[in-house]
Amino acid sequence: MNHLESYLILSALLFSLGLYTVITRKNGVAILMGIELILNAANINFVAFSKFVTHQVEGHLMAIFIIMLAAAEAAVALAIILNLYNDQGNINVDEADALKR
Asked: What are phi and psi of 34, to 5 degrees?
């Protein structure tokens, strides 16, 4: 039951859902959620390969690094989205070109 293939299938599903979310959504928060799904898929791959292939902790350390990077990315992106909402009253990313002023 605990095979590498099951983790890779789960990771591929998460990556596909995240990519679909990023491509189809116009809401900034929904796009951020899609990016987080993509990063979580990468984390599953790192941990699964470190467990089943190398039996080392490099994958776990890489996953922790990605989680820290995702937290920083979410903080910056949420600040940008809040600024967009304060300026325009919505968070539609198609109208984000108004921030160029």
From this structure: -65, -40
- CATH number belonging to the domain at 4-92, selected among 1.10.287.3510, 1.10.357.10, 1.20.1090.10, 1.10.10.350: 1.10.287.3510
- Separation of alpha carbons 35 and 54, rounded Å: 27
CA distance 14 to 48: 14
* 26 touches 13 (CB < 8 A): no
Say yes or no to pLDDT of 29 above 90.
no
With a threshold of 0.85, does the pTM exceed it? no
